[in-house]
């Protein structure tokens, strides 16, 4: 068993370094593009000023400096103050630093002995941090054994079902979300897999997060119970997002919340992993006339896209949205008029998308998280169509698979 565990740790360490190397090489590639044009700044500025728009400038820069599209896009998005001598030196120093780090990681990946050394150091660090002295005593009277509440819970996989109207229940197995019973006019919004010993978290429109153990949710084949049975909701408060905290689901470290009025904030999921009281724990503070419309996973390199009812769409980089240490209103992601609201958003890469359609004719538009369309946050974005209203097309409810600790298989 120990040998299998060590082999597993070696694989994890290798994958970690491979991921870090991919991130470094992508950044180095961009920095090399900067370094190329920094030696010919006057010529670069002349090319840009003589061009008919961004695409024309990109073509000329690619032809002149032998760069690719990613490098050229980064150059054209570069802020003017970055062309100062001190800023150029900072970028060159970053290139040198990241090149050295990439070389170091490559040398580790090429040597199995170096990989095992890293695994050994990691295990030592864990032992120093979490190790405890031996507690078993020889001779004398034995202490009374204490059991935690978890010891009396049968560890089995289950699914938590959450409906649009806020009804919650636990079921043993669920192959198709459409087959479970719901009240008339209601529908399933989230299906959260996990062990009965694990927890789930619910994010609400008022900016509160509620964490509960899966075993504490009543198991039933009926409609379930309203969320107010488990939590103290304010008037009009409703569940807008939910996720499992099962360790096999790899809880995202950073989350993004966006409000109906176009405000957004990023926050750490680590602050919302423990079971809450019925009053919950705040993650955001929307104004009284605003509400959160959703919470999603968000990486620093993601592109955030928001769409409004009037058909305005704005792309921006996730790193431009403030990451708050405590609950707050956040910053403006997309500027909305008084009679307009945000109807949908995502954080992701180019392949991620959501759909909206015109309210009357039903004409559909697919909105992608395309990094090439990223602008500064806080603007109105571009408008798809004028004088029409749009609605969000809900995505089909998906059951997230869990990685099985035994054999690496998935549990549905």
Pick out its properties:
4-stranded antiparallel sheet; flat; 2 domains; Topoisomerase, domain 3; Neuraminidase; alpha+beta; 21 strands; 412 residues
N- and C-termini, Cα separation: 26 Å
Structural class: alpha+beta
Number of domains: 2
C-alpha geometry = flat
Q: Helix coverage percent of residues?
A: 25-40%
- What is the residue-averaged pLDDT? 89
In order across it, which strands form the biggest sheet?
Answer: 3-1-2-6
CATH A-level architecture of the largest domain: 6 Propeller
Number of helices: 6
Order of helices and strands: HHHHHHEEEEEEEEEEEEEEEEEEEEE
CATH class of the largest domain: Mainly Beta
CATH topology of the largest domain: Neuraminidase
CATH superfamily of the largest domain: DNA gyrase/topoisomerase IV, subunit A, C-terminal
Number of strands: 21
Integer-rounded radius of gyration: 26 Å
| Main sheet properties | 4 strands, antiparallel
List the uncertain runs: 405-412
Strand content: 15-25%
Task: Walk me through the structure.
This protein has two domains: 2-130, Orthogonal Bundle (Topoisomerase, domain 3); 152-403, 6 Propeller (Neuraminidase), CATH 2.120.10.90. Helix content is 27%, strand content 25%. It is built from six helices and 21 strands. It has helices at 2-38, 41-49, 54-65, 69-76, 85-110, 112-130; strands at residues 157-163, 167-171, 188-195, 199-204, 208-213, 225-226, 239-244, 254-259, 263-268, 281-282, 292-297, 303-308, 312-317, 331-332, 342-348, 353-358, 364-368, 382-383, 390-393, 402-403, 410-411. It has a four-stranded antiparallel beta sheet, with no helix packed on it. It has a four-stranded antiparallel beta sheet with strand order 7-4-5-10, with no helix packed on it. The chain has a four-stranded antiparallel beta sheet with strand order 11-8-9-14, with no helix packed on it. The longest helix has 37 residues, at 2-38.
